[in-house]
TrEMBL record:
Domain Endonuclease/exonuclease/phosphatase residue range list: 30-346
Biological source species: Aequorivita vladivostokensis
Pfam families per record: Exo_endo_phos_3 (PF19580)
Protein name: Endonuclease
Keyword match Hydrolase: yes
Domain of life: Bacteria
């Protein structure tokens, strides 16, 4: 399956759009999410199960491989939205990162170092040690509050046994003078089968909805973006019934959610492939206030999947699938997921 590229004809940060005889100019900013597929350093951390990702481990994860992986991730991040805005994302959520060190090393790569990104990150209780994080361009976004919310899961047969997984990260701050809230997610996997693991993602969705409802209780007009690898598609129960995310942005009421990824999914687009089928687990979902078509402040304009040719497997059985960085050894690839993004625009 060949996925189309997303291209919008803007000029750097400002675009001109004609409405009848009136021409208005707009600022454009990119918000993105990327599952970077096990971005681990090469040193053993005795507190987590990272033994495979060491030079002596099963994956023979050396400093050389680590540095190649960093370079690849930095290249991708630097190019998301660049053709439209002239820069990398203002805000990008990441999943499957091991610790703060890998984030600092990532931001010191040549394509990103001049962007002066800040980091919001907490170590999560995930057994493998993989976390979520948020990166932001300091000149464009200023965090004011941030918090990690634990997802409490327990074994079905032994309720005293906790299942440790990723936190959900809430970051609130000012984007060009406007308050927005961003939640970064990496919901429980489908290990053991979709149906058997579904209750874990239902719990994740309930926590996510609780965080948003708390924000709405303080401000019904809150601009909220929840993003991440949900390990569910836009049409699954966790997203449709628990988050109650809608596929149409028209006639939305206060405190509702719009999911621009659902229409893409129904058209056969995806961010990862498995057994000859595509899933769209990586999603960016927004609150009512961002969907309005009145652009005196930042509003949603477009959503996309960043799937340039170099991010796809070039040949063989999995041609066209995301070009993974590791399959029985380092491949030189990128990730088993494509990144996703949205553009927000407002009148200049």
């Amino acid at each position: 399956m060949k996925l189309p590229h997303w291209f919008f004809s803007f000029t750097l940060l400002i675009c001109a759009v004609s409405f009848g005889q009136n021409e208005k100019q707009y600022k454009v900013t990119t918000i993105a999410f990327y599952n970077v597929e096990n971005l681990f350093d090469y040193e053993d951390d005795p507190l987590i199960f990272d033994d495979d990702r060491t030079p002596e481990g099963k994956d023979h994860w050396t400093q050389e491989i680590y540095e190649a992986k960093l370079a690849n991730m930095a290249k991708v991040i630097s190019e998301i939205g660049e053709d439209v805005t002239g820069t990398s994302p203002t805000i990008i959520g990441l999943s499957e990162i091991e610790n703060r060190r890998v984030l600092e090393d990532l931001l010191n790569q040549a394509p990103l170092v001049s962007k002066d990104y800040g980091i919001v990150h907490f170590d999560s209780p995930d057994r493998r040690g993989i976390d979520v994080a948020l990166l932001y361009q300091k000149k464009l976004f200023t965090p004011t509050n941030y918090k990690a919310y634990e997802l409490l899961l327990y074994d079905d047969e032994d309720r005293s046994k906790r299942i440790y997984t990723r936190d959900q990260l809430l970051v609130s701050g000012m984007l060009d003078g406007e308050k927005i809230h961003v939640i970064v997610n990496h919901w429980p996997s489908r290990s053991g089968g979709e149906a058997r693991s579904r209750p874990k993602r239902i719990k994740a969705a309930e926590l996510n909805r609780h965080i948003m409802d708390s924000l709405f209780s303080e401000d019904p007009y809150a601009k909220i973006i929840t993003m991440g690898d949900l390990n569910d598609d836009p049409t699954n129960q966790s997203v449709k019934d628990i988050l109650k995310a809608k596929s149409e942005r028209e006639d939305m009421k206060l405190k509702e959610l719009y999911n621009p990824m659902e229409d893409m999914f129904k058209k056969g687009l995806g961010t990862l492939a498995y057994r000859d089928g595509w899933n769209l687990f990586d999603q960016i979902i927004i609150s009512t206030e961002l969907t309005k078509k009145e652009y005196s402040s930042y509003r949603f304009y477009k959503a996309g999947i960043f799937n340039k040719n170099y991010l796809a497997t070039p040949r063989g059985q999995y041609k066209g699938y995301p070009f993974r960085s590791f399959v029985n050894g380092y491949t030189g690839g990128y990730s088993d997921h494509f990144p996703v993004f949205i553009y927000l625009i407002k009148e200049k």
